[in-house]
Write a structure and sequence with these properties.
By secondary structure, the protein is α/β, with parallel strands linked by helices. The protein has 15 helices and 17 strands. The strands form four sheets. Strands 3-4-2-1-5-6-7 form a seven-stranded parallel beta sheet, sandwiched between helices. A five-stranded mixed beta sheet has the order 9-10-8-11-12, with helices on one face. Strand 3, helix 4 and strand 4 form a beta-alpha-beta unit. Helix 1 packs across helix 13, helix 7 runs parallel beside helix 11 and helix 7 packs across helix 15.
C-alpha cells in the first residue's frame, strides 16, 4: 500500500487530485470527510450527498470546510466542482450522474438506498468504494458483474476487517504461503443486544444505538465474514462460524491442524482474544527449509502460521481504497465470482405474524453467516435484506426466517438484483 502515497503526492503536485464524492452524513461519513479534507494529499472531497442535506453540510463544517454550496442537479454539481467549491446535495442518485467525479464512497448502511446509489454510480462510470457491508454481503457479486462491464472498480474498503484481512491474504499469497483461514477479532458477542441495551453507550460515544447493536449481536460479523468468503472462496465450518474463545489470537493455532483445511478454506473469528481488534489470516507452508527459517524468525513451528493486523481504522484507511481503485484499478476486496457465503436472519425473540422486521441491530432479528448453496436451497432471508419485511406467520425465538415467511417491500432494487444474482451464478 506504500505506493499509494507516492501516487497521490504526484497527483497533488500536478494539481490534479482524485475527485471523490461521499454518500452519507452520519458519524462515519463525518470521520471520512475529516480525513480526506485534513490529511490526504492528492484527493479532493468534491461533494457530499445525504437525504437530510444539513447533515452533509455538518460533515464538511466539522472537517473545517466553510465554502459549501447547495446544489439540486447534476449540472449544478458539475459547475460547483469546476469552481473548486464543496457541494452538498440531497439526491445521491443525481450526484452519481454528474461528471468530474472519479469515485463514490457509499457509507449510509441502508441496503436499498446504498444498492441504488452503487448501481447508479457504476452505470455512470464511477468507481464504487463501500463502507456499507450490507450491500456487498447481499448483492456484491452481481454488482461486481456490472462494474466489470462498465470498466470500473467495485470494492469494499481497507480499514474494515474484510479489507484488512485481504491485504494480509494477498501479502501471504505473494510470498508463496497458502492462506487457509481469514477472520477477525471479536471482543464481545450477545445475539440479543438491541438499540435499547446499547443506548447508554451510544449516547456516550455519539453513535447510533442500532449500529452498536449490530456489532454486539454479531450481524455485522456475519456480513463481514460473507464479504471475506466471497472474495476468497472461504466458507464457515458451521452456520454462524464456530468462534474460538482464546486469550490471544495465536492460540487458535492450538485448535487447528492441516487436516481442517483439506476442503475449502474457512472464515472464522476469535472471541475475546488479544490484541482485541483487527483481522487475521492463517496460512500454510510445509517446505522443510522454510519451516526452519520461520521458526528462527519466531513465527512458530508450522506448517500453520498466524498473521494478524492489530488495528482497523475504516475512515482513515478508506482513502487508500479510493486511490487504489482510481489510480491502479485495484480493488481492496471484491467478490471473485459466484458467491459462496450469504447471511441468514434469525428471530431475536418470539415474533408474531404481521410484525415488521427492523433489520440490522434492531429488536427483531440477528444474522448468521452460512454457505451460499445452503441459503439458496433453504431460501433463507439475508439479515440486511430483512429490513421492512413483514411476517406472514409467527416465528419462534432463535429460528431462521425464510423468504416464504415474509412479504417483501414493493419494488426494491436489492430484491431484483438478488434474483438476477441467483440466475447468473450456478451454485453447487
Amino acid at each position: 500500500m506504500i505506493i499509494v502515497d507516492t501516487a497521490l503526492a504526484k497527483r497533488s503536485a500536478e494539481g490534479n487530485p482524485v475527485r471523490v464524492a461521499l454518500v452519507g452524513g452520519g458519524y462515519m461519513a463525518r470521520c471520512i470527510a475529516l480525513q480526506i479534507v485534513s490529511a490526504v494529499r492528492g484527493m479532493r472531497l468534491v461533494a457530499i450527498a445525504n437525504r437530510t442535506v444539513e447533515k452533509a453540510e455538518r460533515a464538511y463544517r466539522d472537517a473545517g470546510v466553510t465554502d459549501i454550496v447547495r446544489v439540486d442537479s447534476a449540472a449544478a454539481l458539475e459547475q460547483a466542482i469546476s469552481q473548486n467549491r464543496h457541494a452538498v446535495i440531497d439526491d445521491a442518485l443525481e450526484m452519481c450522474r454528474a461528471g468530474q467525479i472519479d469515485a463514490v464512497i457509499e457509507c449510509t448502511g441502508h441496503v436499498e438506498h446504498g444498492t441504488r446509489v452503487s448501481f447508479e454510480a457504476i452505470r455512470h462510470g464511477k468507481h464504487v468504494i463501500l463502507l456499507s457491508a450490507e450491500i456487498d454481503a447481499s448483492v456484491g457479486p452481481i454488482l461486481k458483474t456490472y462494474a466489470d462491464r462498465a470498466g470500473v472498480i467495485f470494492s469494499y474498503t481497507d480499514g474494515d476487517e474484510p479489507g484488512v484481512g485481504m491485504n494480509l491474504y494477498r501479502f501471504l499469497d505473494s510470498m508463496g504461503y497458502q492462506p487457509v483461514l481469514m477472520g477477525q477479532l471479536k471482543g464481545f458477542l450477545d445475539r440479543y443486544r438491541n438499540p435499547e441495551t446499547q443506548r447508554e453507550l451510544a449516547t456516550r460515544l455519539g453513535q447510533n444505538p442500532s449500529v452498536l447493536a449490530c456489532f454486539a449481536d454479531g450481524s455485522k460479523l456475519a456480513l463481514e465474514a460473507a464479504i471475506m468468503g466471497n472474495a476468497t472462496g472461504f466458507v464457515p465450518q458451521v452456520r454462524g462460524m464456530r468462534g474460538y474463545p482464546c486469550a490471544h489470537v495465536n492460540d487458535m493455532l492450538k485448535e487447528l491442524t492441516p487436516d481442517h483445511f483439506k476442503g475449502a478454506g474457512m472464515v472464522e473469528y476469535a472471541l475475546g482474544a488479544a490484541p482485541h481488534t483487527g483481522a487475521f489470516v492463517i496460512c500454510m507452508n510445509d517446505h522443510p527449509e522454510k519451516r526452519k527459517l520461520m521458526q528462527y524468525l519466531k513465527m512458530g513451528e508450522g506448517p500453520l502460521y498466524m498473521f494478524y493486523t492489530p488495528y482497523h481504522l475504516p475512515p482513515w484507511q478508506i482513502p487508500h481504497s479510493v486511490a487504489r481503485a482510481v489510480l491502479f484499478n485495484d480493488p481492496t476486496i471484491t467478490p471473485r465470482g459466484a458467491p459462496v457465503c450469504d447471511t441468514v436472519s434469525y428471530a431475536k425473540r418470539d415474533l408474531k405474524a404481521g410484525e415488521r422486521l427492523d433489520g440490522m441491530g434492531g429488536f427483531t432479528c440477528y444474522g448468521l453467516v452460512e454457505r451460499y448453496e445452503v441459503c439458496r436451497r433453504e431460501a433463507t432471508l439475508p439479515i440486511a435484506v430483512s429490513l421492512d419485511c413483514r411476517l406472514k406467520r409467527d416465528i419462534a425465538k432463535d429460528q431462521p426466517i425464510g423468504y416464504a415467511d415474509v412479504e417483501l417491500p414493493a419494488d426494491r432494487l436489492v430484491d431484483k438484483l438478488r434474483v438476477e444474482q441467483d440466475e447468473r451464478f450456478t451454485v453447487n
